[in-house]
Design brief:
Elements (H helix, E strand, L loop, with lengths): L6 E5 L5 H10 L3 E7 L31 E4 L7 H13 L4 E4 L16 H29 L3 H6 L3 E5 L13 H21 L5 E6 L9 H13 L6 E3 L17
Parallel strand pairs: 1-2, 1-4, 2-3, 4-5, 5-6, 6-7
Helix pairs in contact: 1-6, 2-3, 3-5
């Protein structure tokens, strides 16, 4: 079960750039269920137990805030249901769902150069649209749907990780990826309208390429602010500038 103090976060795409940084920076602030495929996020997990060699009997802080890893291919039949059930069995609840898993197949020679783009359609929309939809719906059905009072009390919410290309046309063969993120943006608005009935907020963030254009720190801060806030149904840009948060905005935990 959860420690009771920390919020429980179910995070997909935990082995990627953003997911790894989320786990590394915030594993002491959230009880994190980190869903990954091949790469493992760089944070203490349930597969490790730490001992101070100079004081073997003394408590070690890392043992109190370990990430709970789940390896899964979320596009496989039944995988999402298994992940949701394992998360609820481990912590008893989920307060924040971050749909961060993503698939990006770029087709630099265009959509009509052979069948590469057509072949990638299922993987692109399956990962970038269907997985966030299924994850949100299954979590709602299994944990949130009949718990409106506690949902509101715990400020439960979903954050979908979209992209600036969901609203812009960029070069580089991003047609399918951009279209899937545009679909995710609009799906976010519909989920927000439906989930508000049982007290759960839904928003999306739309950063530019990170860390190349947008610092990962700023993307993390955007998720943290949405989790702490009261907004719903929004698709929010993320600041590109690497700067201290303005007055009134949340600073990430050190």
């Amino acid at each position: 079960m959860s420690s009771g103090d920390r919020r429980v976060c179910l995070l997909t795409g935990a082995g990627g750039t953003l997911g790894s940084e989320f786990c590394r920076r915030l594993y002491t602030d959230y009880d994190i269920v980190a869903v990954h495929r091949e790469r493992v996020p760089p944070a203490p997990s349930q597969h490790e137990w730490f001992i101070d060699p100079f004081a073997p009997a003394s408590p070690v802080p890392e043992n109190d805030a370990r990430v709970h890893l789940i390896r899964a291919d979320l596009t496989a039949p039944g995988a999402i249901e298994r992940v949701v059930d394992l998360a609820l069995a481990r912590f008893g609840r989920v307060d924040l769902l971050v749909n961060n898993a993503s698939y990006a197949g770029y087709h630099t020679n265009g959509l009509v150069d052979g069948d590469a783009a057509l072949a990638d359609f299922g993987a692109t929309f399956g990962t970038n649209v269907e997985v966030p939809l299924r994850m949100s719906v299954r979590l709602a059905q299994r944990a949130w749907l009949h718990d409106a009072e506690r949902n509101r009390a715990r400020n439960r919410n979903v954050v979908n990780v979209s992209c600036a290309s969901g609203a812009e046309v960029y070069s580089g063969g991003q047609a399918l990826y951009s279209a899937s993120k545009a679909a995710l943006n609009h799906l976010t608005r519909h989920l927000a309208r439906e989930f508000t009935e049982f007290g759960v907020r839904v928003n999306a963030i739309a950063p530019n390429t990170f860390p190349g254009v947008t610092p990962v720190e700023n993307v993390l801060r955007a998720i943290y602010e949405l989790d702490s806030g009261a907004m719903t149904g929004g698709v929010f840009d993320v600041d590109d500038a690497d700067e201290e948060p303005p007055a009134g905005r949340h600073a990430l935990p050190a």
